[in-house]
Amino acid sequence: GRVQLAYGSMGGDGQPQTQAALLMRVKHYGLSLAESVASPRWLYGRTWGEISAGLRLEQRYSRTVFEDLQRWGHQVSWVPGYSDFMGHAGMVARDLEGRFAGAADPRSDGSVAMP
Fold it and tell me: Where exactly are the transmembrane stretches of this chain (predicted)?
């Protein structure tokens, strides 16, 4: 057997970025599903028909991260923490023993229900 994972997000052009971040946080950094979904988000590029192609960070990132990115030449702006602008995500996994775990995004009013 193997661990099975289903996940997704809404958020227009930001979906691939959010989904890549969710997977990396769980598989590479070892975060739980809930930690991955609740972690601060970033969004690079145009989305929702905007003209700006900058980098947006939730205000839960440190000021140092923001300033470093600016110094390296990025056009950076803040969005509020847990912003709807970053989309909503959810994750469900089944482990090797068949147990389920799930996480709903604190940026939304969603929830997780298991069998």
Answer: none
The Cα–Cα gap between 105 and 107 comes to 5
Cα(86)–Cα(19) distance, integer angstroms:
11
**CB of 106 closer than 8 Å to CB of 112:** no
For the stretch 54-94, pLDDT in tens is 999 999 999 999 999 999 999 999 999 999 889 999 999 99
Q: Domains plus CATH for the chain?
A: 4-104 (3.60.20.40)
Instruction: Name the nearest CA neighbour of 88 among 18, 25, 33.
Output: 18
| pLDDT the model gives residue 11 | 80
CA separation for the pair 9, 20 (Å, rounded) = 10
Question: Residue type at 82?
Answer: Y
**Dist CA 34 CA 26 (whole Å):** 10
